[in-house]
Every structure is written in structure tokens, then in C-alpha cells.
Amino acid sequence: MTSQTPQTSQRPADRTQDRPLRVLAAMSGGVDSAVAAARAAEAGHDVTGVHLALSANPQSFRTGARGCCTIEDSRDARRAADVIGIPFYVWDLAERFREDVVDDFVAEYEAGRTPNPCLRCNEKIKFAALLDKALALGFDAVCTGHYAQVIVNEDGTRELHRASDMAKDQSYVLGVLDDRQLAHAMFPLGDTVTTKDEIRAEAERRGLAVAKKPDSHDICFIADGDTQGFLANRLGRAEGDIVDESGEKVGTHEGAYGFTIGQRKGLRIGTPAPDGKPRYVLDISPVDNTVTVGPAASLDVTALTAIKPRWCGVAPAGRGTYTAQLRAHGGETEVTAELVDGTLEVTFAEPARGVAPGQAVVLYDGTRVVGSATIASTVRATAAV
Amino acid sequence: MAYLDHAATTPMLPEAVEVLTAQLTATGNASSLHAAGRRARRTVEEARETLAESLGARPSEVVFTSGGTEADNLAVKGLYWARRAADPARTRVLSSPVEHHAVLDAVDWLSDHEGATVEYLPVDPHGRVHAEALREAIARNPDDVALATVMWANNEIGTVQPVRELADVAAEFGIPLHADAVQAYGQLPVDFAASGLAAMTVSGHKVGGPYGIGALLLGREYTPVPVLHGGGQERHVRSGTLDVPAIASFATAGRIAAERREWFAQEIGALRDQLVEAVRAAVPEAILGGDPATEGRLPANAHFTFPGCEGDSLLLLLDAQGIECSTGSACTAGVAQPSHVLLATGSDPDLARGTLRFSLGHTSTKADVDAVAQAIGPAVERARNAGLT
């Protein structure tokens, strides 16, 4: 599926400049960021590669398809940079990453919310700590392997759009970027419709050894993929009740923080629901360490409020109609939204499911990212829990 | 391009390249008895004699190794094992906190795995070990000291150690002293016999020879326990087929470097002084590392701390302008660490992250100095804005 192509009067940001830009390419050691850096260099920009050391105690080697912060990944990135023919450095942002991403991740779960650490990393690390240092050192832009497009309008303002290839689009995790951050962002992979195989073929053609490297999945700082175990380690086990919508106890859990709204698996409830249908997590209450479950229909929400809005451009005035994306890889939902006293109030055209506080709601106008905010609360279609 | 990282490696001398390539076309294992072997052996022994002469040593005191790291490991571990075997009480190793990692990590390993007690001798703010400090350390119990190891000249800040005085103290107690002279060879008068050292490390690629070849100068009365066991080449303390081309090329480079040493100290030393002046003029708050006195530091070394800057940022900015230098300190997983040398000299940890080492060599020119003079001011300003992350 290909999304709408932006108008012809607009051009991708990395093609509008007559002069070559000084570009800092963030290189994880994966194939996407390596090809992105290669494309930026091929376009004539003066590119320097940087691998971010985000772990204070990196593992020596990758295990499986997870993680991105081993020493092996750093070497893969360096190897790619050497082949592309660009300088390469490792910058130690482990402390910032721990403070701004990992600690925040744990605190959000502890508070019963479901954070998106990738979004947070883009907001606080790649397009903040890294970008600020890059700008201070005289770079013009930070380049990453994200699939999204930056369009420059004739008046010089910038827009963030979904990638040409909707299936690969990552604009959701970039929805937190503001004007200033966008002005210095470069996504060389966003404007081509390519399958992963084609990106790998391109890497192969460019002589990049990462061409065959497996994709990374999940959360980079939880190398074994066991988020529950990671949280239990940080927060300790705290047994509590699982209750149904009437408040009746139907089971126990080992920590309310281990759940996500809409979760079905891993509830381990002994007694079946009266109607025999599956039950889902409806609510997480860290204060009394209680998890509420109920039928799928109870997951339907009609509206939400979201805080800490960030706009790609000017904040829209009044109530507007948008499409919204409520989680990474999630579909689009039609909404109306309005900014009221700094809080975003979003109403769904049709009830939506699996809306978890802590996640971002990203608003789109067609392919254009309008802005984003962090979901704080929802309004249920059925009677409140 | 301004290449100012000769302490990392210096371009090969044309004469050394010529010898290397000529030897690469010849066949012969120096341990073989036939004509090809005899030719190879003659080449090796002539090289040994040449190298020994350039270092004030006897040919039999030259033990060829794969480089400085191996020579350091052989000296430190081999002498430790041999001395402890002769007397189990000898488990104390005296070293300095400013050593190269080839020595530091070797003594740490002895401490972790071989029951050694490592004692780091105090250094002054220039990173210098004083003879009295060595005397004091040994005198506490002369019987339990296995060996002492103190580098001839520091690779980061260029400080020259009082090797002769240290060796005299060690000799008084009958304790072998090893010195890593990798940076000193070709820059300072290095005379093994006159030094009084028991063992001394030199390396080929730091004096215009090839990579992968070095030597441990080893007094005839010392027989370290081998690190590499095998065919018994090199006095039975270092086995392995001799690398004839590398050995011949190394000897040629070593001979020329020693012959040109006075010229080097004067001419390259003068360029270094200009570089120091230029950096100070552009960045008055820059702190010169090591001993400011000419006789106290390597003639080709200029080391600076730039307060408020990260060395890595400066490196990136200078690299972008074709100036190649080093922060001087080691990396862990590619991440720059504060220099252990600067920390040992009492430097503040934040300051120790903002260092640059410019090291000149036989191909350095006034143009290299001018390039630094032009670039360093703006680079420091930028790096300071980027701050310490």
C-alpha cells in the first residue's frame, strides 16, 4: 500500500539544498541506518557516522534479533562507515539514555501507563541530546534510517509525512518532533517505496556487510525481550488482585505494572468469565495494585484526553478532523480533536479499542503529521469501570 | 592532510620498505640448515647486530618478538614467573600508574591470576617516578619484589623517566627493572648497556619499520619463562619462526632512526615547540601536559588539556579539516575514557576527558604546524559549546 504522494511544489528536505550539508548519521549497526548514511553521502553531503553507546555495560555480541547496543553492533556500524568512506565515532550517551528513556520507561509502567520508549528516545536522545551536540559541533542535520518524509514548503516551513511505503512508515515514533527538530532531520529512506529485501539488496550492492543482518525488534535495552522480567527486576514483585468490572476478585497478579490495557494473554485467571468469552485488561490501578479485566466490548473508548502536546508546525486552532494513530504499527482512526487549556481532547468517530494511557496519540492530516500528545485518560463506551 | 599521530604509528622509511620488499621475495626459514636457511639466518643475525648496535646492546641481548605488546608481556610475566620460581616469596610487582596498557594489563593479570601484589609507584604532576619512591617501595621488603617496570617515556604526555637512576636503585637490591622504551627509541639516546636495565621493549613501526615486529632487549643473565612455547627460537624464551623480512626492515629503520636522532630532536623538537606556541596563542587556557622542560619530555610530543571540551569532539572537528591526531587515551567499546595517565598525575576527571595529543615524526613539516595553528582556536570554541555530554 502506498500513501498519498505529497504535492509536486514540495520537495524532500535533503534535496532542496544547493550546498552540501554537514550531516551526522546515527548508525545503530543495522541495515537501515547504514543505507540511510550511504544515501546521504551519495547525495553529496558531508557525512560523519556516529554510533550511540546507550548501555553502560554493553554485551560483547548480539544474541538473536534483539537489542542494538552491543559492541558487535558498534563494530558493524564502524565497518559500514568505513565502506561508505565516512568518519565514524562512538558517542557515549548512556547516562542520558538511562535518565531520559530507561528510568522514564520504568516510572511510566510503575504508574500504570504503557510508555513508548522509541518515541521517547527520538524526542530526548536522537533529536535532542544528539542533535544539540551535532549542531554545536557545526553539523546541519541528523540523519537516521527511519521511514518517514520531511517536506519543505515553498515558504521554508517543514512538514513531516508518512513514508511513501505505508507498510514501513515510522512517522508515529517521530510524531514528537517539533519544527526546530524537523528542520535538522534527514530521513533518506522515507521517500522510496522499497521492500526490506530491496534495502538489503541495496546494502549488498553498496558492499555493506550488514545487508544480511537480522532486523532488531522490541525494546533495545531489554536484550532478552522479557519486559515483565525487566520490570520485576526494577520494581520488585508485588502481588495484587485481578478483579472484574463488578469488583469481584477473579485472580492474582505479581505486579500491576506488568500489564497493558487491552492485554489478553498472560492473565492466568482461574475462573472463566460468566459468558465464557475472553477477558482483557481494562484498567490498571497502581495505587491499590489492582488490575481490572472484562470483555472486549468494555475496551471500546469514545474519547481520550492527552497531555504534553507537540506540534509539527503551528498548533491548530479550534476543533479539527484528523486521522489518529494510537500505537506503533497501529491503524488509522478518524477523530476530531481540539486543544483546550493545553490538553488535547480527542473524540473518536467510531469507538476505538486498546487505547493505553502513556502511549502517544499522533494526529495526521492525510499523510502529514500534525502533532502528538501523550494519552492521559480515556472515556469508555460502556459504563465506567 | 596533517598527520600528527606518529606516536600511534609513523610512516615507514623508504629504506626500510626497500629492505622489506626485497626480503619478501627470498625463501628460507632461519632455523633450516640448508642454503636457503643459512641465507635467512645470516640476514637475521646481521639485523640483530645492527639493531643491537643502535641500542647499545650486545646482539645476544636482542630477542625478536611480534611487537611492543608481546615484548612487554614477555618481560613482565616471564620475569615474574622466573623470579617467583627461584624464590616463592617474590610476588610483589612494582610499576607506575602511567604505563602503557601492554604493561598495565599484564601486571593486572598477574595480580588477578598469579598471586602477584601490584604496587603502583607514586608519580609527580608531570607523571614522573622518582628514584626515592622506588627505593622506599623496595626497601620495605626487598626480598618479596619480583620485578619493577617503569616506561622510558610516556606515550601520552611524553614525560621521560629517570631510567638510569631507577635502574641503579633496582640494581642495589638485585631486582630486575624493565622499561617500555617504545616511544623513546629514535627520539632519546637509548643505550641499553648504559641504562642498567634488565629488560627493555622496542617496536618496529614506531621508528619507521614495519608493523608486527619488535624486540625485547634482555640482559644475558635473565631467562624469563616463555609466554610462547614452541621451537625454541630466540634464546628459548620466544618461540616462533622468525619473520626475516620484518626483522631486516626493522633493523634498517632502527639504525637510521638512531643515526638521525640528534637531527630529529633538534628539528622536529623545534617544530613541536612552534606547535605548542601556536596552540597556546590560539587557546591561552590550554594546559600543556607533562614536563614543560625540553629535556624532560619527548621532542616530538605535544599534549594538551582543553578545559570544558571533550577530546572526542576536538578530534572529530580537526579530523574534518584533515588534521589527524589523538586524544591519547584508550577506548572502552569505542567510548573514550578519561586518560589513566592524566588521572594518575592528579588531573580532574572532567579535565582528563578534554585532551589532545599531537605527536610529530620524521615526515612532519611547518605546514602541519600551521594547519593546527589555524584550526585549533575555532575547534576548541565549537567543542566547548558542545560541552561535556
From TrEMBL, chain A:
Keywords, alphabetical: ATP-binding, Cytoplasm, Disulfide bond, Nucleotide-binding, RNA-binding, Transferase, tRNA processing, tRNA-binding
Lineage top rank: taxon: Bacteria
Domain tRNA-specific 2-thiouridylase MnmA-like central: from-to ranges: 229-294
Domain tRNA-specific 2-thiouridylase MnmA-like C-terminal: from-to ranges: 302-375
Record: residues binding ATP: A26, M27, S28, G29, G30, V31, D32, S33, L52, G145
Subcellular locations according to the entry: Cytoplasm
A UniProt-annotated Pfam family: tRNA_Me_trans_M
Catalysed transformations (reactions): S-sulfanyl-L-cysteinyl-[protein] + uridine(34) in tRNA + AH2 + ATP = 2-thiouridine(34) in tRNA + L-cysteinyl-[protein] + A + AMP + diphosphate + H(+)
Gene Ontology MF annotations: tRNA-uridine 2-sulfurtransferase activity
Region (Interaction with tRNA): 168-170
Keyword RNA-binding tagged: yes
Family the entry assigns: Belongs to the MnmA/TRMU family.
Protein name: tRNA-specific 2-thiouridylase MnmA
Organism: Streptomyces beihaiensis
Lineage: Bacteria, Bacillati, Actinomycetota, Actinomycetes, Kitasatosporales
From TrEMBL, chain B:
Catalyzed reactions per annotation: (sulfur carrier)-H + L-cysteine = (sulfur carrier)-SH + L-alanine
A Pfam family reported for this protein in Swiss-Prot or TrEMBL: Aminotran_5
Cofactor: pyridoxal 5'-phosphate
Transferase as UniProt keyword: yes
Keyword presence, Iron-sulfur: yes
Domain annotation Aminotransferase class V: ranges: 3-372
Key words of the record: Iron, Iron-sulfur, Metal-binding, Pyridoxal phosphate, Transferase
Family: Belongs to the class-V pyridoxal-phosphate-dependent aminotransferase family. NifS/IscS subfamily.
Official protein name in the record: Cysteine desulfurase
